[in-house]
Amino acid sequence: MKDIPKCLFVLCLTFVLLNWTQAQSLEAKELRQNGELQKAIAAYKKVFYEKPDVSDNTYDLACAFALTFQIDSAFQYLELALKKDSSLWALADTDLFALINDERWKQVENEQLRKYQEANGAFKHPEYVKKLVNMILKDQSLDYYVDQAKSQYMKQGTIPHWYYPIAAYKQQIGKTNFEQMLGLIEKYGWPKYSSVGKLAADAPLLIINHHESEEVRKQFLPQIKKACLEKEGSCMEYAKIHDRILVNENKPQVYGMQFRFNAQNQLEPFPIQDPEYVDERRKAIGLEPLQVYLKRKINYDWVIEQKVKE
Q: How far apart are CA 233 and CA 132, in angstroms?
């Protein structure tokens, strides 16, 4: 029997290692999703020791440490993960909320902002961008724990007792964020994609959508719609806010962006106006078909056949 050629052996070994890495990463993600953070950390670290150059795994490891408030370890792996990353995503990642009051977070912010501008051009008001992105992180802070509470409710029909202080804290953060947002808009003007980038421009939309007051959403809806139609703001967030206003007024939604729990404790969309034409409305503002969105978002099978008005 002839020896296996060296190049073929290397190729096979690479394929095996790649499959092993993917399998281990999927296992770690599943553990994280199920709330088993310590086991997830162990799984992420196993991949890291074998393949330290897989930055996505290293980043997820940093996030898992942050979610368990192991601050030093989170910063250690985050620094490694971001070495070749020139995006601003980490600055808006809710998983890293535990890190933002540490002095080291300012270094992370400044370094990512520097790399982003080197790669994409300078912002007119970089401090505005930094503050907007930080508001996104705060607005969605603690979402991991809220999702765990929702998961328990869907499985057991009960809300865990630890959810209530987290929900109260999120509400407090939302109020502070809204006040800060008003001050920033007054100083710098309404953020646009062309001036602060897509990520930062979404900050006011998230905060407004999560505000407890319906009047606030109605007040800002025309500006949000204008930015959407001019391609200077998120049409996804516009659709969410528009539908939330309708649902809260006991009216059928237009884009299918708001959900409720049904009798089986499963998420489903609130009633939709003329549901057979919902995709036509979504397409008009650049949104994907509702069937695709609902399957990805809440694992819901949308089966209503779509039509196009003549």
A: 14
Q: Among 238, 224, 242, 235, which residue's Cα sits nearest to residue 286? A: 235
Crossing angle for the helix pair 235-248 and 214-229, to the nearest 10 degrees: 150
List, by residue range, all CATH 1.25.40.10 domains of the chain: 1-85
Q: For the segment 142-169, what is each residue's pLDDT rounded down to a tens digit?
A: 888 888 888 888 888 888 898 899 889 8
Token pair listed for 187? 């100083």
Q: Phi then psi for 303, rounded to 5 degrees?
A: -120, 5
The helices-and-strands tally (H runs, E runs) of the chain is 16, 2
Q: How far is CA 35 from the centre of its chain?
A: 18
Q: Which amino acid is at 266?
A: Q
Q: pLDDT of 94-131, one tens digit each? A: 999 999 999 999 999 999 999 999 999 999 899 999 99
Find out whether 126 and 112 touch, Cβ atoms under 8 Å.
Answer: no
Give 1-85's CATH code, choosing from 3.50.50.60, 2.40.50.100, 1.25.40.10, 3.30.360.10: 1.25.40.10
> pTM for the full model?
0.79
